[in-house]
Amino acid sequence: MAGAASTAFPYILPSGRLFARTNAELADHVVYVLFAGGVRHQEAMLKRYLADSQGVDIEGNIMYNMINGSPPDRKIVYGTTPSGDPDGSSPIPKILSTTLQNQGLLFPEVTAQNGGHFGGLTSLLTGNRSVAQGLKVRPNSPTIFEYLRRHRGFKASDIWFVGSGIGNSFPLLNSSAHPQYGTQYGANFVAPSVTFGSDGQQVLSNAKIYHPQEELEPIQRMRAFLNNTFRIKNGEVDGIRNDEDEKARIKKFIREIFQKKSTGGLARAPITDNGDLQSVSYAAEVMKYFKPRLTVVNLTNVDGCHGNYTGYLRSLHRADHAVGWLWDYIQNQIPEMAGKTILMTTPECGRNLNPNPIQDENDWYSFDHSGDFNTQRIFSMLAGPNVPSNMVVGSEANRIGRATDNVLTIAEIFGIKDAVQGAGFMDAEARSLFDRI
């Protein structure tokens, strides 16, 4: 069973790999957080809390691991006690003694290239505007995963994409459909909530040989799980393969994670009461075991803003907690990556300026992301070696940066910016964020 599961991860690099490093690497590792599932700029960068959303004149910063600013002093609903008590919720204690803003580089007014989740994530991973990109298909343009594996020669186990689930086409983002790139250059994809959830527990952790006649139901359940999780079609793996050493390491990793889960030994953020925090905890395990060159982590819980503004505030506060904890974990628990890792985080899209009619338990209105100007407002943040500290580039009156810049930024960190630009698939207006300083 472990062997069957492991075939779902990347191929050996084929012959004809392209090494085209044109500048020195800026860091050994990159951790790229796709931040939270559509973040409204007013509650994030502008720190307006309720002032620009609910007609209540209360401002404050609920992302105080990432950005500077004092938290709200009233109607605290984003903490760990019941959200229906608008003055009794306990905020999550700050993890980082110095904000990421002070540690690194902040672009507070970046332009998103798509108002939807899949399109927005596609632009963050391909550096292409992807305006004609459909759902439930792989991206048309190559991803950063493929650029790094083809042009930098990274192995499959060097590149990991930790998704929040297997719905919403997330597993399709680990490689493109482009004929010059494709799955042979793709990333390992793992959805912890599925792979290590209740279904994975039944299928993978205590695998056995089933009798084909007397135990047909568990066989079919196992087959459906593997097909959905590892994208097996018509008996063939429609995904990523590893070489034999990588397969062995992945099998051992899966086994160790289930062992840690059974004994309570998993890496855990102080608060793990939503899916994003659980995904980040498993991402930390991936990094500690494999020390990937690139780890991409997708957060999504903030998307609850469509129908629950209070829940959105709680999720935004937790997304900040997740990023702060992950950065602290890298520096203090993974010595091979400490001081050698650049963290980058950007939302895939913003949210509407005006609310929809849905009210939550506090009678607060909710917000969609249907494509108004406000949905184009996002931010980008970097911290780590060779990143300027305590620097802000751009302002509300001077927007600097595009979502598509991030692929070129990562390419520059690993020394292949010229190769990625030269491939000809990038947004023509994209630039490395280092070039925008």
Keywords for this entry:
437 residues, globular
Strand order in the sheet with the most strands: 4-3-7-1-8-9-2-10
Helix content: 25-40%
What is the element string, with H for helices and E for strands?
HEHEHHEEHHHEEHHEHEEEHHH
Strand content is: 5-15%
Main pleated sheet: 8 strands, mixed
Could you tell me how far the N terminus lies from the C terminus, measured between alpha carbons in angstroms?
50 Å
What's the rounded overall pLDDT mean? 87
DSSP E strands, number: 10
Tally of helical runs:
13
Spans of at least 5 consecutive residues with low confidence: 1-17
Q: Give the helix/strand class.
A: alpha/beta
Overall geometry:
globular
Q: Any idea what the radius of gyration is?
A: 21 Å
